[in-house]
Amino acid sequence: MLDDIQVFYYDSNVNNLRNQPSKHTECITQEAANLVFGDLYRRVKNIALFSKHQLNLTGGIHVQQEWSGCELLDGGIPGPLLSRGAFNGADNAEWQFSLHQKTLRSEGLWSTVWNHIEANTHELLCANVYGPVCIKALKNCLHIKKNEVMRKVKPRLRLLQKTLPDSKGAKVTCLATGFYPRHINLILLRDGQPVSDHQITGGELLPNGDETYQMSKSLEVSAEELQHHHYTCTAEHLSLDNKLDIGLGITWI
């Protein structure tokens, strides 16, 4: 993943990369991928077996998940290497390696399993293999996908009202959709004041099928509240010079 855009994946069944941009503009070489992802795959299997043994699990389906990555800070400075794992949905391992200070910090499973030699070996791998490979791949992907990652797409904003037959009230929904990047500040207001979060439902960021996002926030109100109060919706996003404000029955595109 480059930020939130999938650029390729590694198929461990055939030890090969899939869906790279092209052979002439690859993010990572096949040799580097085999080295890094092959090791990651073996480590995930070993963690799963260890966790299964620790929890005295014998049968059934069990899942070990892990995400690992690196980042570029302002000015193209390499940030830390990060990794976090979970077994059956519960966090069980985490480590962070500083490429600048060459130091490793581990929590969870690794703190109890790694001995001094294993920790030192992992530090050397991070400093001389994982770090350089990840940062180079990140820079290559950013060069290839820069226009896609750096694009800004304005949200379409609507404030909707739906009658609730059981309560004779209504649900007021603020919907923002079709925006990129993913970060947005969406606020539902009553008489110009933000509605308290505990009264709001929704607010989850959801992907659209076109590599943009949507978010909605809803509030159930009585017929009396709807009559005596004024409801509006406001959105702030990187694609907008100013925040958007709309009322019921208005769509901003």
UniProtKB/TrEMBL annotation:
GO cellular component, one term: extracellular space
InterPro entries with a match to the protein in the record: Ig-like_dom, Ig-like_dom_sf, Ig-like_fold, Ig_C1-set, MHC_class-I_related, MHC_I-like_Ag-recog_sf, MHC_I/II-like_Ag-recog
Residues annotated as signal peptide: none
Domain called Ig-like: residue spans: 155-245
UniProt keyword Iron-sulfur, yes or no: no
GO BP terms, alphabetized: immune response
Keyword Transcription annotated: no
UniProt keyword terms in alphabetical order: Glycoprotein
Sections of the chain in a coiled coil: none
Protein name: Ig-like domain-containing protein
